[in-house]
Design goal:
single chain, 626 residues, alpha/beta, Rossmann fold, 4 domains, eleven-stranded mixed sheet, six-stranded antiparallel β-barrel, elongated
Length: 626
Protein backbone atom coordinates (compact mmCIF):
# COMPACT_ATOMS: atom_id res chain seq x y z
CA UNK A 1 0.00 0.00 0.00
CA UNK A 2 2.85 2.35 0.91
CA UNK A 3 4.58 1.62 -2.44
CA UNK A 4 1.34 2.34 -4.28
CA UNK A 5 0.92 5.68 -2.51
CA UNK A 6 4.56 6.58 -3.07
CA UNK A 7 4.32 5.71 -6.79
CA UNK A 8 1.09 7.66 -7.12
CA UNK A 9 2.56 10.71 -5.43
CA UNK A 10 5.64 10.67 -7.67
CA UNK A 11 3.76 10.06 -10.96
CA UNK A 12 0.98 12.55 -10.19
CA UNK A 13 1.40 15.59 -12.46
CA UNK A 14 -1.66 17.71 -11.81
CA UNK A 15 -5.42 18.01 -12.19
CA UNK A 16 -7.88 18.69 -14.98
CA UNK A 17 -8.98 22.32 -14.92
CA UNK A 18 -10.89 22.54 -18.21
CA UNK A 19 -12.70 20.14 -20.57
CA UNK A 20 -13.49 21.45 -24.05
CA UNK A 21 -14.58 18.51 -26.22
CA UNK A 22 -11.53 16.36 -26.90
CA UNK A 23 -9.28 19.18 -25.70
CA UNK A 24 -8.35 18.83 -22.04
CA UNK A 25 -6.34 21.29 -19.95
CA UNK A 26 -4.31 20.11 -16.96
CA UNK A 27 -2.74 22.38 -14.38
CA UNK A 28 0.69 21.06 -13.38
CA UNK A 29 1.60 20.99 -9.69
CA UNK A 30 4.31 23.45 -8.71
CA UNK A 31 6.79 20.74 -7.64
CA UNK A 32 6.41 18.80 -10.93
CA UNK A 33 7.93 21.29 -13.36
CA UNK A 34 11.41 19.76 -13.54
CA UNK A 35 12.51 17.80 -16.65
CA UNK A 36 13.06 14.56 -14.73
CA UNK A 37 11.75 12.91 -11.57
CA UNK A 38 13.45 10.41 -9.26
CA UNK A 39 11.60 7.25 -8.26
CA UNK A 40 13.05 4.08 -6.65
CA UNK A 41 16.54 5.03 -7.73
CA UNK A 42 15.47 5.53 -11.35
CA UNK A 43 15.27 8.73 -13.32
CA UNK A 44 11.83 9.15 -14.88
CA UNK A 45 11.36 11.56 -17.77
CA UNK A 46 8.73 14.14 -16.94
CA UNK A 47 5.87 14.93 -19.30
CA UNK A 48 6.48 17.28 -22.23
CA UNK A 49 4.93 18.13 -25.59
CA UNK A 50 4.42 14.95 -27.65
CA UNK A 51 4.27 12.63 -24.60
CA UNK A 52 1.32 10.55 -23.43
CA UNK A 53 -0.49 11.33 -20.20
CA UNK A 54 -2.88 9.20 -18.10
CA UNK A 55 -5.98 10.84 -16.66
CA UNK A 56 -7.75 8.72 -14.06
CA UNK A 57 -11.53 8.94 -13.84
CA UNK A 58 -12.51 6.43 -11.19
CA UNK A 59 -11.48 3.07 -12.59
CA UNK A 60 -11.01 4.45 -16.12
CA UNK A 61 -7.55 5.23 -17.50
CA UNK A 62 -8.06 7.91 -20.14
CA UNK A 63 -5.00 8.40 -22.35
CA UNK A 64 -4.17 11.72 -23.95
CA UNK A 65 -1.32 13.24 -25.90
CA UNK A 66 0.23 16.57 -24.93
CA UNK A 67 -0.12 18.99 -27.83
CA UNK A 68 1.26 22.07 -26.11
CA UNK A 69 1.78 23.91 -22.90
CA UNK A 70 1.47 27.48 -21.65
CA UNK A 71 1.68 29.51 -18.48
CA UNK A 72 -0.98 31.71 -16.93
CA UNK A 73 -0.79 34.39 -14.28
CA UNK A 74 -3.43 34.64 -11.53
CA UNK A 75 -3.36 37.36 -8.89
CA UNK A 76 -3.42 35.97 -5.34
CA UNK A 77 -5.27 38.62 -3.33
CA UNK A 78 -4.47 36.89 -0.04
CA UNK A 79 -0.71 37.02 -0.55
CA UNK A 80 -0.89 40.10 -2.79
CA UNK A 81 1.17 38.55 -5.62
CA UNK A 82 0.85 36.81 -8.98
CA UNK A 83 0.84 33.01 -9.16
CA UNK A 84 2.33 31.45 -12.28
CA UNK A 85 0.62 28.22 -13.40
CA UNK A 86 1.81 25.72 -16.05
CA UNK A 87 -1.07 24.44 -18.18
CA UNK A 88 -0.84 21.38 -20.47
CA UNK A 89 -3.05 21.23 -23.56
CA UNK A 90 -4.04 17.61 -24.20
CA UNK A 91 -5.87 15.74 -26.98
CA UNK A 92 -7.64 12.54 -25.96
CA UNK A 93 -6.62 9.50 -28.01
CA UNK A 94 -8.20 6.55 -26.19
CA UNK A 95 -8.35 4.62 -22.96
CA UNK A 96 -6.86 1.50 -21.32
CA UNK A 97 -9.44 -1.16 -20.50
CA UNK A 98 -8.51 -4.62 -19.17
CA UNK A 99 -4.84 -4.10 -20.07
CA UNK A 100 -5.77 -3.24 -23.67
CA UNK A 101 -5.56 0.11 -25.37
CA UNK A 102 -8.71 1.18 -27.23
CA UNK A 103 -8.48 4.16 -29.54
CA UNK A 104 -11.18 6.78 -29.69
CA UNK A 105 -13.03 8.99 -27.23
CA UNK A 106 -15.30 6.78 -25.14
CA UNK A 107 -14.94 8.72 -21.90
CA UNK A 108 -14.32 12.37 -21.09
CA UNK A 109 -12.60 13.33 -17.84
CA UNK A 110 -14.14 15.58 -15.23
CA UNK A 111 -12.67 18.75 -13.84
CA UNK A 112 -10.58 17.76 -10.86
CA UNK A 113 -9.56 14.33 -12.23
CA UNK A 114 -5.89 13.61 -11.56
CA UNK A 115 -3.34 13.30 -14.37
CA UNK A 116 -0.30 11.01 -14.17
CA UNK A 117 2.89 10.20 -16.02
CA UNK A 118 2.32 7.10 -18.15
CA UNK A 119 4.21 4.12 -16.70
CA UNK A 120 6.40 1.78 -18.77
CA UNK A 121 3.75 -0.92 -18.51
CA UNK A 122 1.00 1.43 -19.69
CA UNK A 123 3.19 2.64 -22.53
CA UNK A 124 3.74 -0.96 -23.68
CA UNK A 125 -0.03 -1.45 -23.66
CA UNK A 126 -0.51 1.70 -25.79
CA UNK A 127 2.14 0.57 -28.28
CA UNK A 128 0.92 -3.02 -28.39
CA UNK A 129 -0.68 -3.53 -31.81
CA UNK A 130 -1.21 -7.28 -31.79
CA UNK A 131 -4.23 -8.73 -30.00
CA UNK A 132 -2.61 -12.07 -29.12
CA UNK A 133 1.05 -13.03 -28.84
CA UNK A 134 0.52 -16.03 -31.11
CA UNK A 135 -0.59 -13.74 -33.97
CA UNK A 136 1.82 -13.29 -36.87
CA UNK A 137 3.69 -9.99 -36.68
CA UNK A 138 6.84 -8.22 -37.78
CA UNK A 139 9.20 -6.08 -35.72
CA UNK A 140 10.99 -3.55 -37.89
CA UNK A 141 11.06 -0.50 -35.63
CA UNK A 142 11.00 0.91 -32.13
CA UNK A 143 9.67 4.10 -30.56
CA UNK A 144 11.76 7.06 -29.44
CA UNK A 145 11.95 5.55 -25.96
CA UNK A 146 13.26 2.24 -27.44
CA UNK A 147 10.01 0.29 -27.12
CA UNK A 148 9.88 -2.40 -29.84
CA UNK A 149 6.79 -2.21 -32.05
CA UNK A 150 5.15 -5.48 -33.10
CA UNK A 151 3.10 -4.79 -36.21
CA UNK A 152 0.42 -7.41 -37.02
CA UNK A 153 0.75 -8.62 -40.61
CA UNK A 154 -3.02 -9.10 -40.84
CA UNK A 155 -3.79 -5.40 -40.49
CA UNK A 156 -0.78 -4.18 -42.43
CA UNK A 157 -0.27 -6.37 -45.48
CA UNK A 158 -3.92 -7.03 -46.30
CA UNK A 159 -4.13 -3.32 -47.03
CA UNK A 160 -2.76 -0.71 -49.41
CA UNK A 161 0.44 0.88 -48.10
CA UNK A 162 1.96 4.29 -48.90
CA UNK A 163 5.58 5.17 -48.05
CA UNK A 164 6.58 8.80 -48.54
CA UNK A 165 9.77 10.73 -47.90
CA UNK A 166 12.40 12.94 -49.49
CA UNK A 167 15.52 11.43 -51.04
CA UNK A 168 17.79 10.13 -48.29
CA UNK A 169 15.06 10.05 -45.62
CA UNK A 170 15.05 6.24 -45.35
CA UNK A 171 11.94 5.28 -47.31
CA UNK A 172 13.76 2.61 -49.40
CA UNK A 173 15.07 1.03 -46.19
CA UNK A 174 11.52 1.03 -44.79
CA UNK A 175 10.07 -0.63 -47.89
CA UNK A 176 12.79 -3.30 -47.95
CA UNK A 177 12.48 -3.91 -44.19
CA UNK A 178 8.72 -4.31 -44.38
CA UNK A 179 8.82 -6.98 -47.07
CA UNK A 180 11.98 -8.71 -45.87
CA UNK A 181 10.37 -9.32 -42.47
CA UNK A 182 6.97 -10.16 -43.98
CA UNK A 183 8.40 -12.79 -46.29
CA UNK A 184 10.50 -14.21 -43.44
CA UNK A 185 7.23 -14.78 -41.56
CA UNK A 186 5.54 -16.30 -44.63
CA UNK A 187 8.46 -18.66 -45.24
CA UNK A 188 7.83 -20.28 -41.86
CA UNK A 189 4.73 -21.70 -43.59
CA UNK A 190 6.58 -22.66 -46.75
CA UNK A 191 3.86 -24.57 -48.61
CA UNK A 192 1.12 -22.05 -47.90
CA UNK A 193 3.43 -19.23 -48.93
CA UNK A 194 4.29 -20.98 -52.19
CA UNK A 195 0.66 -21.59 -53.07
CA UNK A 196 -1.00 -18.37 -51.97
CA UNK A 197 1.29 -15.32 -52.00
CA UNK A 198 2.72 -13.43 -54.99
CA UNK A 199 4.72 -10.22 -55.08
CA UNK A 200 5.59 -8.01 -58.05
CA UNK A 201 8.01 -5.13 -57.45
CA UNK A 202 8.57 -2.44 -60.08
CA UNK A 203 12.09 -1.09 -59.59
CA UNK A 204 12.73 2.03 -61.67
CA UNK A 205 16.35 2.51 -60.59
CA UNK A 206 17.68 -1.02 -60.03
CA UNK A 207 17.79 -0.64 -56.24
CA UNK A 208 16.29 -4.00 -55.23
CA UNK A 209 18.26 -6.40 -57.42
CA UNK A 210 20.85 -7.41 -54.81
CA UNK A 211 20.83 -11.11 -54.04
CA UNK A 212 20.05 -10.53 -50.34
CA UNK A 213 17.69 -7.57 -50.72
CA UNK A 214 14.23 -8.51 -49.33
CA UNK A 215 14.62 -12.21 -50.19
CA UNK A 216 17.08 -14.53 -51.90
CA UNK A 217 14.22 -16.52 -53.41
CA UNK A 218 13.22 -14.07 -56.10
CA UNK A 219 13.25 -13.70 -59.86
CA UNK A 220 14.85 -10.51 -61.19
CA UNK A 221 14.17 -9.34 -64.74
CA UNK A 222 17.03 -7.02 -65.74
CA UNK A 223 15.35 -5.36 -68.69
CA UNK A 224 16.93 -3.11 -71.30
CA UNK A 225 15.77 -1.26 -74.39
CA UNK A 226 19.34 -0.22 -75.22
CA UNK A 227 20.76 -3.56 -76.33
CA UNK A 228 19.20 -6.64 -77.93
CA UNK A 229 21.35 -9.45 -76.62
CA UNK A 230 21.89 -8.43 -72.99
CA UNK A 231 18.30 -7.96 -71.89
CA UNK A 232 16.22 -10.56 -70.12
CA UNK A 233 12.64 -10.92 -71.32
CA UNK A 234 9.31 -11.18 -69.56
CA UNK A 235 7.12 -14.04 -70.65
CA UNK A 236 3.68 -12.97 -71.80
CA UNK A 237 0.77 -14.45 -73.69
CA UNK A 238 -0.41 -12.92 -76.95
CA UNK A 239 -3.79 -12.14 -75.43
CA UNK A 240 -2.09 -9.78 -72.96
CA UNK A 241 -1.32 -7.36 -75.78
CA UNK A 242 -4.57 -7.98 -77.65
CA UNK A 243 -6.32 -5.51 -75.38
CA UNK A 244 -7.85 -2.79 -77.54
CA UNK A 245 -7.66 -0.10 -74.85
CA UNK A 246 -4.05 -0.84 -73.94
CA UNK A 247 -2.83 -1.21 -77.51
CA UNK A 248 -4.69 1.91 -78.62
CA UNK A 249 -2.83 3.84 -75.96
CA UNK A 250 0.46 2.13 -76.82
CA UNK A 251 0.09 3.04 -80.50
CA UNK A 252 -1.58 6.40 -79.80
CA UNK A 253 -4.51 5.39 -82.03
CA UNK A 254 -7.10 8.04 -82.84
CA UNK A 255 -10.56 7.45 -81.40
CA UNK A 256 -12.72 7.72 -84.54
CA UNK A 257 -10.64 6.02 -87.25
CA UNK A 258 -7.57 4.11 -86.03
CA UNK A 259 -9.04 2.58 -82.87
CA UNK A 260 -12.04 0.99 -84.70
CA UNK A 261 -9.59 -0.27 -87.33
CA UNK A 262 -7.40 -1.85 -84.62
CA UNK A 263 -10.44 -3.44 -82.98
CA UNK A 264 -11.45 -4.96 -86.31
CA UNK A 265 -7.88 -6.25 -86.79
CA UNK A 266 -7.84 -7.85 -83.33
CA UNK A 267 -11.16 -9.57 -84.06
CA UNK A 268 -9.70 -10.97 -87.29
CA UNK A 269 -6.60 -12.12 -85.39
CA UNK A 270 -8.66 -13.91 -82.76
CA UNK A 271 -10.99 -15.43 -85.36
CA UNK A 272 -8.16 -16.90 -87.42
CA UNK A 273 -6.31 -18.26 -84.41
CA UNK A 274 -9.51 -19.82 -83.10
CA UNK A 275 -9.72 -21.96 -86.26
CA UNK A 276 -8.30 -25.47 -86.63
CA UNK A 277 -5.57 -24.40 -89.04
CA UNK A 278 -4.71 -20.69 -88.63
CA UNK A 279 -1.97 -20.78 -91.27
CA UNK A 280 -4.28 -22.13 -94.01
CA UNK A 281 -7.04 -19.73 -93.01
CA UNK A 282 -4.68 -16.74 -93.21
CA UNK A 283 -3.07 -17.65 -96.53
CA UNK A 284 -6.44 -18.43 -98.16
CA UNK A 285 -7.58 -14.90 -97.31
CA UNK A 286 -4.23 -13.58 -98.54
CA UNK A 287 -4.53 -15.39 -101.89
CA UNK A 288 -8.09 -14.13 -102.37
CA UNK A 289 -6.90 -10.57 -101.72
CA UNK A 290 -4.20 -11.00 -104.44
CA UNK A 291 -6.81 -12.12 -106.96
CA UNK A 292 -9.11 -9.24 -106.02
CA UNK A 293 -6.28 -6.73 -106.49
CA UNK A 294 -5.13 -8.09 -109.86
CA UNK A 295 -8.67 -7.83 -111.21
CA UNK A 296 -8.86 -4.10 -110.43
CA UNK A 297 -8.87 -1.32 -113.02
CA UNK A 298 -7.57 1.42 -110.71
CA UNK A 299 -3.77 1.18 -111.08
CA UNK A 300 -2.78 3.53 -108.22
CA UNK A 301 -5.09 1.87 -105.72
CA UNK A 302 -4.03 -1.61 -106.88
CA UNK A 303 -0.32 -0.84 -106.55
CA UNK A 304 -0.91 0.57 -103.07
CA UNK A 305 -2.64 -2.68 -102.07
CA UNK A 306 0.18 -4.72 -103.64
CA UNK A 307 2.55 -2.79 -101.39
CA UNK A 308 0.55 -4.04 -98.40
CA UNK A 309 0.74 -7.64 -99.66
CA UNK A 310 4.48 -7.34 -100.23
CA UNK A 311 4.92 -6.01 -96.69
CA UNK A 312 3.51 -9.35 -95.50
CA UNK A 313 5.51 -11.55 -97.90
CA UNK A 314 8.68 -9.46 -98.01
CA UNK A 315 9.52 -10.08 -94.35
CA UNK A 316 13.03 -9.25 -93.14
CA UNK A 317 13.54 -6.86 -96.08
CA UNK A 318 13.57 -9.61 -98.72
CA UNK A 319 14.50 -8.06 -102.10
CA UNK A 320 12.53 -10.54 -104.21
CA UNK A 321 10.82 -8.82 -107.12
CA UNK A 322 7.27 -10.10 -106.84
CA UNK A 323 5.95 -8.12 -109.83
CA UNK A 324 8.33 -9.27 -112.56
CA UNK A 325 5.86 -11.73 -114.10
CA UNK A 326 2.88 -9.38 -114.51
CA UNK A 327 2.23 -5.84 -115.70
CA UNK A 328 -0.56 -3.28 -116.01
CA UNK A 329 -1.98 -2.12 -119.32
CA UNK A 330 -2.41 1.62 -118.85
CA UNK A 331 -4.46 2.11 -122.02
CA UNK A 332 -7.06 -0.55 -121.32
CA UNK A 333 -6.67 -0.65 -117.50
CA UNK A 334 -6.04 -4.27 -116.65
CA UNK A 335 -3.32 -6.52 -115.28
CA UNK A 336 -1.86 -9.22 -117.55
CA UNK A 337 0.66 -12.06 -117.43
CA UNK A 338 4.16 -11.41 -118.78
CA UNK A 339 4.55 -14.71 -120.69
CA UNK A 340 4.68 -16.06 -124.30
CA UNK A 341 1.60 -18.17 -123.68
CA UNK A 342 -0.40 -15.03 -123.34
CA UNK A 343 0.18 -14.04 -127.01
CA UNK A 344 -1.85 -16.22 -129.42
CA UNK A 345 -2.96 -15.45 -132.96
CA UNK A 346 -6.66 -14.74 -133.48
CA UNK A 347 -7.20 -16.32 -136.93
CA UNK A 348 -10.78 -15.12 -137.24
CA UNK A 349 -9.92 -11.46 -136.86
CA UNK A 350 -6.49 -11.94 -138.42
CA UNK A 351 -4.66 -10.31 -135.54
CA UNK A 352 -2.67 -11.21 -132.47
CA UNK A 353 -4.99 -11.94 -129.54
CA UNK A 354 -3.88 -10.82 -126.05
CA UNK A 355 -5.00 -13.60 -123.75
CA UNK A 356 -2.88 -12.76 -120.67
CA UNK A 357 -5.60 -10.52 -119.28
CA UNK A 358 -6.39 -11.65 -115.67
CA UNK A 359 -9.95 -10.40 -115.92
CA UNK A 360 -10.54 -13.09 -118.54
CA UNK A 361 -8.10 -15.72 -117.24
CA UNK A 362 -8.12 -15.68 -113.43
CA UNK A 363 -6.22 -18.98 -113.48
CA UNK A 364 -3.10 -17.13 -114.70
CA UNK A 365 -2.84 -15.40 -111.31
CA UNK A 366 -2.04 -18.73 -109.67
CA UNK A 367 1.16 -18.94 -111.79
CA UNK A 368 2.53 -15.65 -110.39
CA UNK A 369 5.44 -15.50 -108.00
CA UNK A 370 3.48 -13.34 -105.54
CA UNK A 371 0.68 -15.91 -105.47
CA UNK A 372 3.07 -18.87 -105.01
CA UNK A 373 4.77 -17.04 -102.11
CA UNK A 374 1.36 -16.46 -100.53
CA UNK A 375 0.48 -20.13 -100.98
CA UNK A 376 3.66 -21.09 -99.10
CA UNK A 377 3.30 -18.45 -96.39
CA UNK A 378 3.08 -19.78 -92.81
CA UNK A 379 1.80 -17.30 -90.24
CA UNK A 380 2.90 -19.64 -87.44
CA UNK A 381 6.56 -19.64 -88.45
CA UNK A 382 8.66 -19.35 -85.28
CA UNK A 383 10.75 -16.55 -86.76
CA UNK A 384 7.81 -14.17 -86.51
CA UNK A 385 7.52 -12.12 -83.36
CA UNK A 386 4.04 -11.23 -82.12
CA UNK A 387 4.37 -7.68 -83.48
CA UNK A 388 5.41 -9.10 -86.87
CA UNK A 389 2.27 -11.20 -86.96
CA UNK A 390 0.15 -8.33 -85.78
CA UNK A 391 1.53 -6.20 -88.62
CA UNK A 392 0.59 -8.96 -91.10
CA UNK A 393 -2.98 -8.84 -89.82
CA UNK A 394 -3.01 -5.03 -89.96
CA UNK A 395 -1.97 -5.12 -93.64
CA UNK A 396 -4.41 -7.94 -94.39
CA UNK A 397 -7.28 -6.04 -92.79
CA UNK A 398 -6.24 -2.81 -94.51
CA UNK A 399 -6.39 -4.44 -97.97
CA UNK A 400 -9.98 -5.49 -97.29
CA UNK A 401 -11.07 -2.10 -95.99
CA UNK A 402 -9.42 -0.21 -98.86
CA UNK A 403 -10.98 -2.60 -101.38
CA UNK A 404 -14.36 -1.93 -99.79
CA UNK A 405 -13.68 1.82 -99.57
CA UNK A 406 -14.02 1.73 -95.79
CA UNK A 407 -10.54 3.07 -94.99
CA UNK A 408 -7.97 5.49 -96.41
CA UNK A 409 -4.26 4.85 -96.42
CA UNK A 410 -3.64 8.40 -95.15
CA UNK A 411 -5.62 7.64 -91.99
CA UNK A 412 -4.04 4.27 -91.16
CA UNK A 413 -0.43 4.81 -92.30
CA UNK A 414 0.52 6.88 -89.18
CA UNK A 415 -0.81 4.06 -86.97
CA UNK A 416 1.31 1.51 -88.85
CA UNK A 417 4.42 3.65 -88.41
CA UNK A 418 3.83 4.01 -84.67
CA UNK A 419 3.32 0.26 -84.21
CA UNK A 420 6.55 -0.37 -86.15
CA UNK A 421 8.40 2.11 -83.95
CA UNK A 422 7.29 0.18 -80.82
CA UNK A 423 8.31 -3.17 -82.30
CA UNK A 424 11.99 -3.03 -81.33
CA UNK A 425 11.26 -2.10 -77.72
CA UNK A 426 8.61 -4.79 -77.34
CA UNK A 427 10.90 -7.42 -78.90
CA UNK A 428 13.66 -6.50 -76.42
CA UNK A 429 11.40 -6.70 -73.37
CA UNK A 430 8.90 -9.49 -73.99
CA UNK A 431 8.91 -13.13 -74.97
CA UNK A 432 5.37 -13.45 -76.33
CA UNK A 433 3.62 -16.68 -77.27
CA UNK A 434 0.12 -18.18 -77.38
CA UNK A 435 1.10 -20.66 -74.68
CA UNK A 436 -1.35 -20.32 -71.79
CA UNK A 437 1.37 -21.40 -69.35
CA UNK A 438 3.51 -18.40 -70.27
CA UNK A 439 3.64 -16.08 -67.21
CA UNK A 440 5.88 -13.62 -65.42
CA UNK A 441 6.45 -15.66 -62.25
CA UNK A 442 8.99 -18.16 -63.58
CA UNK A 443 8.25 -20.50 -60.62
CA UNK A 444 8.99 -17.73 -58.13
CA UNK A 445 6.65 -15.93 -55.72
CA UNK A 446 8.63 -12.69 -55.68
CA UNK A 447 9.47 -10.94 -58.96
CA UNK A 448 11.51 -7.75 -59.37
CA UNK A 449 11.15 -5.83 -62.64
CA UNK A 450 14.38 -3.84 -62.98
CA UNK A 451 13.69 -0.96 -65.38
CA UNK A 452 16.93 0.97 -64.86
CA UNK A 453 17.96 0.57 -68.52
CA UNK A 454 14.48 0.90 -70.02
CA UNK A 455 13.51 4.02 -71.96
CA UNK A 456 10.95 6.44 -70.56
CA UNK A 457 8.02 5.41 -72.76
CA UNK A 458 8.34 1.73 -71.86
CA UNK A 459 8.88 2.57 -68.18
CA UNK A 460 5.38 3.99 -68.21
CA UNK A 461 3.89 1.16 -70.25
CA UNK A 462 5.46 -1.84 -68.43
CA UNK A 463 3.91 -1.37 -64.97
CA UNK A 464 0.56 -0.60 -66.54
CA UNK A 465 0.60 -3.66 -68.79
CA UNK A 466 1.73 -6.14 -66.12
CA UNK A 467 -0.46 -4.70 -63.34
CA UNK A 468 -3.54 -4.74 -65.55
CA UNK A 469 -2.80 -8.29 -66.74
CA UNK A 470 -2.22 -9.75 -63.26
CA UNK A 471 -5.11 -7.85 -61.69
CA UNK A 472 -7.52 -9.08 -64.38
CA UNK A 473 -6.30 -12.67 -64.01
CA UNK A 474 -6.63 -12.48 -60.24
CA UNK A 475 -10.22 -11.23 -60.50
CA UNK A 476 -11.18 -14.06 -62.84
CA UNK A 477 -9.76 -16.80 -60.60
CA UNK A 478 -11.79 -15.69 -57.54
CA UNK A 479 -9.63 -17.72 -55.17
CA UNK A 480 -8.06 -16.73 -51.86
CA UNK A 481 -4.59 -16.10 -53.24
CA UNK A 482 -2.93 -12.74 -52.48
CA UNK A 483 -1.19 -10.54 -55.04
CA UNK A 484 0.87 -7.58 -53.83
CA UNK A 485 2.04 -5.00 -56.37
CA UNK A 486 4.90 -2.83 -55.12
CA UNK A 487 5.82 0.35 -57.00
CA UNK A 488 9.01 2.13 -55.93
CA UNK A 489 9.39 5.73 -57.15
CA UNK A 490 5.65 5.61 -57.82
CA UNK A 491 5.47 9.19 -59.13
CA UNK A 492 6.98 7.82 -62.37
CA UNK A 493 3.79 5.93 -63.20
CA UNK A 494 1.08 7.41 -60.93
CA UNK A 495 1.67 11.07 -61.70
CA UNK A 496 -1.54 13.05 -62.20
CA UNK A 497 0.24 15.50 -64.51
CA UNK A 498 2.40 14.73 -67.53
CA UNK A 499 3.38 16.88 -70.48
CA UNK A 500 4.93 14.01 -72.47
CA UNK A 501 1.79 11.96 -72.99
CA UNK A 502 -1.74 12.36 -74.30
CA UNK A 503 -4.72 12.91 -72.03
CA UNK A 504 -6.14 9.51 -73.11
CA UNK A 505 -2.95 7.74 -72.01
CA UNK A 506 -2.84 9.57 -68.68
CA UNK A 507 -6.53 8.86 -67.98
CA UNK A 508 -6.22 5.17 -68.85
CA UNK A 509 -3.07 4.81 -66.73
CA UNK A 510 -4.59 6.45 -63.66
CA UNK A 511 -7.97 4.75 -64.03
CA UNK A 512 -6.28 1.35 -64.10
CA UNK A 513 -4.38 1.89 -60.85
CA UNK A 514 -7.25 3.71 -59.21
CA UNK A 515 -9.47 0.70 -59.90
CA UNK A 516 -6.85 -1.58 -58.32
CA UNK A 517 -6.59 0.54 -55.18
CA UNK A 518 -10.39 1.01 -54.89
CA UNK A 519 -11.54 -2.51 -55.79
CA UNK A 520 -8.45 -4.72 -55.42
CA UNK A 521 -8.99 -5.53 -51.74
CA UNK A 522 -12.11 -7.56 -52.65
CA UNK A 523 -10.00 -9.83 -54.85
CA UNK A 524 -6.89 -10.08 -52.67
CA UNK A 525 -4.88 -7.55 -54.70
CA UNK A 526 -2.96 -4.96 -52.67
CA UNK A 527 -0.84 -2.01 -53.73
CA UNK A 528 2.25 -0.61 -52.00
CA UNK A 529 3.61 2.67 -53.32
CA UNK A 530 6.79 4.52 -52.38
CA UNK A 531 7.49 8.06 -53.54
CA UNK A 532 9.42 11.23 -52.74
CA UNK A 533 6.70 13.42 -54.28
CA UNK A 534 3.22 12.58 -52.93
CA UNK A 535 1.89 15.80 -54.47
CA UNK A 536 2.56 14.39 -57.96
CA UNK A 537 0.44 11.28 -57.32
CA UNK A 538 -3.31 11.04 -57.88
CA UNK A 539 -5.27 12.13 -54.77
CA UNK A 540 -7.56 9.12 -55.20
CA UNK A 541 -4.64 6.72 -54.90
CA UNK A 542 -3.14 8.47 -51.86
CA UNK A 543 -6.44 8.77 -50.01
CA UNK A 544 -7.33 5.11 -50.58
CA UNK A 545 -4.20 3.78 -48.86
CA UNK A 546 -4.87 2.17 -45.48
CA UNK A 547 -1.44 2.44 -43.83
CA UNK A 548 1.18 5.17 -44.16
CA UNK A 549 4.89 5.39 -43.38
CA UNK A 550 5.76 9.07 -43.70
CA UNK A 551 9.43 10.06 -43.58
CA UNK A 552 10.80 13.58 -43.78
CA UNK A 553 9.01 15.80 -46.30
CA UNK A 554 9.91 19.46 -46.77
CA UNK A 555 7.98 20.70 -49.80
CA UNK A 556 4.83 22.60 -48.81
CA UNK A 557 2.73 20.99 -51.54
CA UNK A 558 3.74 17.49 -50.39
CA UNK A 559 2.95 18.36 -46.77
CA UNK A 560 -0.44 19.76 -47.76
CA UNK A 561 -1.21 16.60 -49.76
CA UNK A 562 -0.41 14.44 -46.74
CA UNK A 563 -2.48 16.66 -44.46
CA UNK A 564 -5.49 16.45 -46.79
CA UNK A 565 -5.26 12.74 -47.58
CA UNK A 566 -4.22 11.18 -44.28
CA UNK A 567 -7.00 11.75 -41.79
CA UNK A 568 -5.28 9.67 -39.10
CA UNK A 569 -2.52 12.22 -38.39
CA UNK A 570 -3.01 14.94 -35.78
CA UNK A 571 -1.72 18.49 -36.19
CA UNK A 572 1.26 18.10 -33.86
CA UNK A 573 2.45 14.96 -35.61
CA UNK A 574 1.99 16.55 -39.04
CA UNK A 575 4.07 19.56 -37.99
CA UNK A 576 6.96 17.28 -37.01
CA UNK A 577 7.29 15.70 -40.51
CA UNK A 578 9.78 18.28 -41.95
CA UNK A 579 12.19 17.70 -39.04
CA UNK A 580 12.16 13.91 -38.84
CA UNK A 581 15.65 12.35 -38.63
CA UNK A 582 16.84 9.82 -41.23
CA UNK A 583 15.14 6.47 -40.66
CA UNK A 584 12.38 7.94 -38.48
CA UNK A 585 8.83 8.05 -39.81
CA UNK A 586 5.25 8.55 -38.77
CA UNK A 587 3.40 5.22 -38.90
CA UNK A 588 -0.35 5.71 -39.14
CA UNK A 589 -3.35 3.79 -40.39
CA UNK A 590 -5.62 0.85 -39.66
CA UNK A 591 -2.77 -1.27 -38.25
CA UNK A 592 -2.34 1.17 -35.35
CA UNK A 593 -4.93 2.97 -33.27
CA UNK A 594 -2.90 6.18 -33.13
CA UNK A 595 -0.07 7.72 -35.15
CA UNK A 596 3.31 6.50 -33.94
CA UNK A 597 6.70 8.08 -34.46
CA UNK A 598 8.98 5.09 -35.03
CA UNK A 599 12.64 4.51 -35.85
CA UNK A 600 12.94 1.85 -38.56
CA UNK A 601 15.89 -0.44 -38.00
CA UNK A 602 18.65 -0.04 -40.55
CA UNK A 603 19.25 -3.15 -42.64
CA UNK A 604 22.63 -4.77 -43.01
CA UNK A 605 24.71 -3.44 -45.91
CA UNK A 606 24.22 -6.63 -47.94
CA UNK A 607 20.43 -6.39 -47.44
CA UNK A 608 20.00 -2.70 -48.26
CA UNK A 609 18.55 -1.39 -51.51
CA UNK A 610 21.17 0.33 -53.67
CA UNK A 611 19.90 3.79 -52.83
CA UNK A 612 22.57 5.05 -50.44
CA UNK A 613 23.71 8.64 -50.94
CA UNK A 614 27.25 8.85 -52.30
CA UNK A 615 29.83 9.74 -49.63
CA UNK A 616 32.07 12.40 -51.21
CA UNK A 617 34.52 12.41 -48.29
CA UNK A 618 35.00 8.65 -48.65
CA UNK A 619 35.74 9.03 -52.35
CA UNK A 620 38.32 11.72 -51.61
CA UNK A 621 39.82 9.63 -48.83
CA UNK A 622 40.13 6.57 -51.09
CA UNK A 623 41.75 8.68 -53.79
CA UNK A 624 44.25 10.01 -51.30
CA UNK A 625 45.26 6.48 -50.37
CA UNK A 626 46.08 5.77 -53.98
Amino acid sequence: MDNFLIEKSVLLIGKVVEVSGRKIFVEVEKNKNSSCLLFNGKIIKNVSVGNFINIQKGFFYIIGKIDGEKITKDFDKLNNKYEIKRILEISLIGNIDNNKFVGGTNELPLIGNEAFIVTDKQQEIIYKLISKEEDFYITIAETEDNTAIKIPINNLFNSHIAIFGNTGSGKSNTLASLYKNYISVLETKKEKYKENFYFLLFDFNGEYTNENCITKNKTVYNLSTHNVGGSEKIKLQEKDLLDIELFSILSDATEKTQKPFLKNTFNLYKKIYASENPSDYFKNILKKRIKDILLMTDKNKAYLLLDYIENILNHNDDTTNMREDFSFNDANKYFYLNSDVSFLYDKENKKQAYLGKFQEHVEYIEQLKIYVLADNFNIEDVQYHFIDKLMFFIYLNLTKQVLENRANNEHIAPLINRVKSRKKDIEKLFDISRNDENNVWNESNFVVINMKDVNLDMKKMLPLLLSKKLYSEHKEKKDKKILTIIIDEAHNILSKESFRESEEWKDFRLETFEEIIKEGRKFGVFLTISSQRPNDISETIISQAHNYFIHRLINDKDLKTISNAVSYIDKLTAESIPTLPIGTCIFSGIATQLPLKINVKELLDIEKPQSTTIDICKILSDNNKE
